[in-house]
Amino acid sequence: MNSVNIFWGSDADFDKAVSSLKTCHTIGDLLNHISKKEINISGVQHTEDPPLEIENLVVDTDDYGAINEWALLGFSNNVLEHSKVTINNIWLNNPPNKIYEDVKKTYPNMIAEKKSTYQDITIETLKDISSGYNSVVIGQDKVIVRVLSSLYSLNSPARKKPIAILFLGESGVGKTETAKYINSFLTGEMVRIQFSMQQTGEAYKYIFGAEHNENCLARELIRRESNIILLDEFDKVHPSFYNAFYQMFDEGTFVDANYSVNLEKCVIICTTNYLSEQEAENKLGTPIFSRFSKIVGFDPISTEDKMKIAEKNYSLLFEQLSKEDKKLISSNNILTFYKDKIGQGYYKNMRMLKNDIEDAINFEILKARGIIT
Q1: Is residue 260 a contact partner of residue 221, using CB atoms and an 8 Å limit?
Q2: Average pLDDT over residues 92-113
Q3: How far apart are CA 138 and CA 10, in angstroms?
Q4: CB–CB of 315/354 below 8 Å?
Q5: Most buried among 94, 214, 239, 364, using CB within 10 Å?
Q6: 305: left (phi > 0), else alpha (psi -120 to 50), else beta?
Q7: What are 71-83's pLDDT values in tens digits?
């Protein structure tokens, strides 16, 4: 063995690091070779095959799921040092704790570790976020002021713990859109976890970790591309699971059965449909509620702002059409129709408004083409 290279972070960074390697094998190649049975033919002298020569063993974040439990325990002895293979260099991306500790113990003087770096939120970034927010998220002028005051804390060199922000407000008023907007000024895709999907018995395994071959929250966090983390519909997860986030909010570390994830200087945004701080504290519980750096309430959207949102959505959707489709429906009354609906008190949820406008545009195109009557 010549070297053991361990990477922590995004899959994109790892792929870039190993892209120049000329000769590579996967963990699947290795395990298939080890488990391959040799055939002995009667009367023919048997000669054992030489060990498989592996110049670079490359193991991606998702590859560990292919490793059986017998191979996971004592990974170095059972796999890396197996008599059927000879490995010169190992490249591991986000190895589970069992493999990491085993490899460190076996090859203490060969290990080189690297981590993904994440773009900082600078003063210039804050200026950019501030200047364009009200044109993107309409009707929430007060929100960005409160968010920016929290984000500014990350400028302190001494600041290590993450910023944890709780968003309150009705569905469709711009909470998720605000998180996406902030991340748009940084490189890498935001981590978005939808807790409305964690309503079954699998939720415990997902949050606290179970078998190494199952997806889990820690694995999604450790391979993140950005330091913006959105825990959407945080109020939908069972309250008994909130203790899993205490250390994450307090110290910037998330630990489960397989991983320990460093989340220093992250921005963790949790959205809920609660309408007041009192309701949020009562439902979430004081232990988790008190750990948020900032509580930000989103106002119901006024009729005037709903009109602006309708205009914006219609313009964006119309501009995405082909020239032919634009010409076919150039004289439609879609926007007028939905403005009238808004004036009559319809549409609390702006996400539904956008979907209906898009559906109406498609309907008019199909009529103009004679596909429907």
Answers
A1: no
A2: 94
A3: 33
A4: no
A5: 94
A6: alpha
A7: 777 899 989 998 8
